[in-house]
Amino acid sequence: MVTHVPSETPGDERGMFLSFVEAQRGAIRRSLLGLTEEQAASRPSSSELSLSGLLKHVAETELNWLRMAQQQPCEIARDESNWADSFRLVDGESVEAMVKFWEGVAAELAEFIHAVPSLDDTFPLPDKPWFPEGERVSMRWLLAHLVEEHARHAGHADIIRESLDGRTAFELVAEAGGYSNQS
Hints:
2 strands
């Protein structure tokens, strides 16, 4: 079962980018289908990554980029002291709650992107050693970056899920779409 990102309405570049971001979100969400909290938190390889940790990371990352674009402080501050917590559920957090949180971030991102005057509008990158000094990026760049970021982690999620129970992304797409598992 192939996933397909619907074509945008001609001239709707914002909608096209948001559709591709959502397609990658869906891949990460599907990797969690049918798993218990314990399975979602397990790490079946030498990597520190888990499916629930990836879910939290991408949700927080998307929020952080949204706040940068809005030029507002992010309500979830990460630094060296708590960076590892962005890759694991803590303090009673659950997969269900994290999915709902991410849905809220996604809705806010869509509302923001539809409200900006132009995808050519820019915002400054923070003063961090991994960003070029004084660099600004466009809203278009932000959306392309979110596709890249989420796709990278969707690939991680595919491998983790298959390592847990042998289920592939192909099977999970079919299940989520209500299709039987056919060749």
